[in-house]
User: Which sequence fits this backbone?
């Protein structure tokens, strides 16, 4: 697998994982106030949770793909 293809796979996998996990976790950790009563603090918390999950899932996807490729091609 070329490096460009590898980067695309990592990006797609991490985006999917991050969006699913962040949505679920944000829903559980952050109380969803009514839209009218949402404050900047609520938006900041949600953004932080999603950013952390995006970063973590990118790292995990990268590790998984690199291990898979190392086993497959013995690199």
Assistant:
């Amino acid at each position: 697998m070329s490096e460009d293809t590898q980067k695309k796979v990592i990006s797609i996998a991490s985006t999917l994982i991050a969006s699913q996990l962040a949505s679920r976790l944000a829903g559980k950790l952050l109380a969803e106030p009514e839209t009218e009563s949402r404050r900047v603090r609520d938006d900041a918390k949600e953004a932080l949770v999603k950013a952390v999950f995006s970063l973590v899932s990118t790292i995990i996807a990268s590790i998984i793909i690199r291990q898979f490729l190392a086993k497959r091609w013995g690199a």
User: Anything to note?
Assistant: Residues 3-27+38-73 form one domain.
